[in-house]
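Please produce the structure of this protein holding coenzyme A.
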Amino acid sequence: MEPSKTAMNALVLSDGVVTLRPWRPEDARAVFDACQDRLIALHTYVPVPYTIEHAQRFIAHCTEALTTGSTAAGFAITAAATGQVLGSMSRSRLEGHRASFGYWLAPEARGRGVATRALRLIADWTLATTDAIRLDLYTDLDNPASGRVAERAGFVREGIRRAWDIGRDGKPIDVIFYVLVRARA
Ligand SMILES: CC(C)(COP(=O)(O)OP(=O)(O)OC[C@H]1O[C@@H](n2cnc3c(N)ncnc32)[C@H](O)[C@@H]1OP(=O)(O)O)[C@@H](O)C(=O)NCCC(=O)NCCS
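Below is the modeled complex.
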């Protein structure tokens, strides 16, 4: 049975250290603050400059996805102990059997395995609640920290895709794909 829309909006995934929960309107300031970071601007597609209205629209968009039954899902990564917002973990709308993920952490939340825990949580949830077979994400060539996060969460480096994206300067960008394929029954 499909989870109800209300249940989706109350969804919480936790390993006791990191908790993924739906975004709330009052998180906008934390999103705005984090998205001033140079690395987030460099390695993700957040608007630059990033305004509080961008943060509010991002949260509204994630809330709408969770409450309208979309297979896209965006969660706040929070500290299980304190509730502090640490970052963002998203799943794009499923494309057939494929699910793709993206994430960022606030600068002060880095270097302690938070993104790895968050990626494991959303990957496990995706395997448990959808028929997705191929889970993937991609990183810029010069983003080894994100590649390590993927590998520590069980994704395997698949290879480089040439000119997969177009950068802010309009030039094509090569990326590295990481993939986790559902084990066969
Ligand atoms: C990517 C990101 C989420 C990783 O955050 P994090 O979990 O704190 O990552 P860490 O700093 O702990 O680094 C993860 C791993 O990469 C390694 N690493 C970090 N910087 C590295 C570098 N310059 N070269 C090689 N390895 C590096 C760390 O040693 C660590 O490896 P370990 O787990 O084996 O010790 C964070 O850097 C971020 O938010 N970056 C900006 C947004 C972004 O890049 N999002 C991902 C887009 S694909």
